[in-house]
Design brief:
This protein is an alpha/beta fold and 404 residues long. The chain has helices at residues 2-26, 67-79, 98-102, 119-124, 128-145, 168-190, 214-231, 237-241, 246-256, 265-278, 312-316, 338-341, 377-403, and strands spanning 36-38, 45-51, 83-89, 112-116, 151-155, 195-198, 282-289, 292-299, 306-307, 323-325, 348-355, 361-369. It folds into two domains: 2-240, Rossmann fold (3-Layer(aba) Sandwich), CATH 3.40.50; 246-403, 2-Layer Sandwich (Beta-Lactamase), CATH 3.30.450. Helices cover 43% and strands 17% of the residues. β2 (45-51), α2 and β3 form a beta-alpha-beta unit.
């Protein structure tokens, strides 16, 4: 009862301070560009970072320099695999609004979801019961969207002492609220195998500077990545990717507006680079449309529409990793393929999926050869990096069409 009275009396003061400081916090740089980060490598883990505070990236101009980039690099250093970090950051996000924010995202494609919420509830002095109920609803929502559900990591609210801009009279009150929020978060996670509370206690700020740099985000990521690494279960990857939604995939492809367009140098350049880097007979950027395989760019191989039913790339889009056929004459799926038996004499194929911005796999960047060949992990990492270049050009092109 005493805490409720103190909170009620303090809320106007906290609200006044928040309004006063809103312009101050609007000033720092924030990341621009696509809200996704890719680390180098192959066989990527897919992570969603959603929240306010640390997820926003105050003080830097790219997500690669902010927390997502630090998470991707440090996770890859531990796993030896690549990491794809999708970012959904909003300074106003709360436990009450996060489910709606997640509504447009395909959570089933992520291996783990990291949330950084709670700071706004500290400022609002949100009652503990409301926070616990809202967090419980979030955990239930994530557990219901897919089987198996992604791992959910709830990152704690940092001690208020770590944020030196707060007036001294308010720090004790807000720090008590932060400890309450964290204790309830830990309790909410304790009854769920796929929900984990991550303590977040960064070093206390030694100055009043509101800008953050790469070193700060690297230190913050170091507090989260050990927990993330321990929770990712690679055995679930096949189950997570085995049920593509073909109708939604086709809608995502159509929305890109790429089908049946004229050749474009930016895509041709990537196809040439892929062919030359691998010393392959040919390379192509291909999209899988309804019952056909449509080629946007091809170098050193036939540039013609073929049935989807016999397309190598149709197999590629069923997985998140590079699909390789080292000798098509020894593969029962393709040894009778027209390109294998015919004059093209195709023997080798390697393709990496190209995704729409919502994660649907809509096509592939592939290389082919007329001789069998092996394909190493480093080769797969290089092909993936080129496929990501195609994605970025594709997404930028689509965004330009929408705004133009």
């Amino acid at each position: 009862m005493l805490w409720w009275c103190v909170s009620a009396l303090a809320r106007p003061a906290v609200r006044l301070w928040t309004v006063t400081m809103s312009r101050y916090w609007d000033a720092p740089p924030r990341p621009m560009g696509l809200p996704v980060v890719h680390s180098q490598g192959s066989a990527p883990d897919r992570i969603l970072l959603v929240g306010n505070g640390p997820a926003v990236g105050y003080g830097v101009l790219s997500h690669d320099l902010a927390l997502p980039g630090a998470l991707a690099r440090q996770l890859s250093a531990r796993t030896g695999r690549a990491a794809d970090i999708d970012v959904h950051a909003d300074g106003t996000l709360t436990a009450a609004t996060i489910i709606a924010a997640l509504g447009s995202l395909r959570l089933e494609r992520f291996d783990a979801i990291i949330t950084t919420i709670g700071f706004n509830e500290v400022l609002a002095l949100t009652p503990g019961r409301a926070w616990e109920n809202q967090l419980g609803a979030l955990i239930a929502h994530v557990e219901s969207v897919a089987r198996p559900a992604p791992q959910l990591l709830i990152v704690g609210v940092p001690p208020i002492e770590a944020i030196s801009q707060f007036p001294r009279p308010l720090r004790a009150l807000l720090n008590h609220q932060a400890r309450l929020i964290n204790a309830l978060s830990r309790r909410a996670c304790s009854g769920h195998a796929r929900a984990t509370f991550v303590p977040f206690v960064p070093p206390v700020a030694t100055d009043t500077e509101r800008y953050r740099g790469r070193d700060t985000y690297e230190r913050w990521a170091a507090l989260i990545v050990p927990w993330l690494h321990n929770r990712i279960d690679r055995t679930e990857r096949s189950a997570r990717t085995a049920r593509p939604d073909e109708k939604a995939r086709q809608l995502a492809l159509d929305a890109l507006g790429i089908l049946d367009t004229e050749p474009e140098e930016k895509f041709d350049a990537i196809a040439r680079t892929a062919r030359d880097l691998f010393g392959a007979t040919g390379a192509a950027i291909i999209f899988i449309d309804h019952d056909r395989q449509w080629i946007k760019s091809a170098r050193g191989m036939p540039n013609e529409i073929t049935p989807r039913a016999i397309a190598f790339c149709d197999v590629t889009i069923t997985g998140t990793e590079t699909f390789v056929v080292e000798d098509a004459t020894r593969d029962s799926r393709f040894r009778d393929h027209p390109l294998v038996r015919g004059e093209t004499h195709l023997r080798f194929y390697a393709g990496h999926a190209i995704e729409a911005s919502d994660g649907h796999r809509v096509g592939a960047l592939c290389i082919v050869d007329t001789e069998p060949r092996s394909f190493s992990g480093s080769d797969s990492a290089l092909l993936r990096s080129l496929a990501i270049r195609v994605q970025r050009e594709l997404w930028a092109r689509s965004e330009s069409d929408l705004t133009g």
